[in-house]
Amino acid sequence: MSIAPELLEILRCPACVQEDDTAGHLELVKGTWLVCQTCARKYPIRDDIPVMLIEEGDRWQNAPIDALPDTPPEPVV
Asked: What is the pLDDT of residues 11-58, one digit of tens each?
């Protein structure tokens, strides 16, 4: 999985950007997660599509990066 650098440059954490449009920069981790550098929410990438829902970021916010699964699990419904 690879996200184009141009896309990674413009993507922002949807929770943080509501407070400050300069916050919420994301870093690609393990090739399948986007981690917010401001709040530590972690957004999974499923089927090559970043899941940028605040609820998904909240779900993984307190998980240490090394504990994130290599393949993000499907959402709980």
From this structure: 999 999 988 878 999 999 999 999 999 999 999 999 889 999 999 999
Containing structural domain, residue 58:
5-67
- Closest of 2, 54, 47, 53 to residue 28, by C-alpha: 2
The answer to whether the CB of 26 falls within 8 A of the CB of 37 is yes
* Residue 29: its H or E element: strand 26-29
The verdict on residue 74 lying in a domain is no
* 48 within domain boundaries: yes
Q: Is residue 32, in this structure, part of any structural domain at all? A: yes
Closest CA to 72 of 39, 50, 40: 50
pTM of the model: 0.90
